[in-house]
Amino acid sequence: MNVKKLKISLVNATLVDISFKINSSLALVGESGSGKSLTLKALLGMLPSSMRLELESEGSFELKAGKTLSLVPQNPFTALSPLTKIRKQFFSEKSRVDELFFEVGLELELLDRFPPELSGGQLQRVVIAMALESKPKLLLLDEPTTALDPDTKTLVIKLLKKLQKKEGFLTLFVTHDMNSAANLCEEICVIKNGKVVERGNMGELLKNPQKEYTKTLIEANFANRTFRE
Predict the structure, then answer these.
(1) Cβ(38)–Cβ(16) under 8 Å?
(2) Given this model, what pLDDT does residue 144 score?
(3) Which of 5, 137, 138, 196 could pair with 56 as two cysteines, CB 3.0-4.6 Å apart?
(4) What is the CATH number of domain 22-49+62-68+136-229?
(5) Which residues contact 128 (CB under 8 A, 6 or more apart)?
(6) pLDDT at 49
(7) Cα separation of 125 and 105, whole Å?
(8) Neighbours of 222 (CB within 10 A)
């Protein structure tokens, strides 16, 4: 999927003006306020009416939220109704929901529980299962590991990699966590103030960043460098 132009603007200001290509898995990385969240909202058709969007893309499918695009949110606690059992928050038939739960490694008995009865890691896997319900072509990840402990974060990253390989969807991982990005994505696009600063192969860019902003992000994330070779 090639997003040739994604421009978000107000009357007198351009907030985001970027382009990117997703061959398999792409991390869109930047600090808070860089334009990551606006980019996600633009793809999902969730920008406020005060903002103007110019979007040009080309690929084997049309960008359409709920059909070709699905979102894994940052906070599963706010994405689920606390007063509704897990199973009733899916729209598919029982067999499909059971299959999705198996895919994300959850026991079927959890379907009959309420969200507050599950751990954060379990809930994150529930919303991943929900995101896969429509069999998306592109999975959008909005900082899905931010609130997780290190061990659970590692498990979720491994799960997402396994699911992508099995289901064949593309991944856009929006984050400021370069460690998680490095362990999940093949390529990276670094943005600052709504502009692309640097892009390329994940491993190569982490080893040899060209821009000072990218170097600062890497140094802030890797006290101990754990990205893959």
Answers:
(1) yes
(2) 86
(3) 5
(4) 3.40.50.300
(5) 72, 104, 144, 156, 159, 160, 163
(6) 93
(7) 8
(8) 14
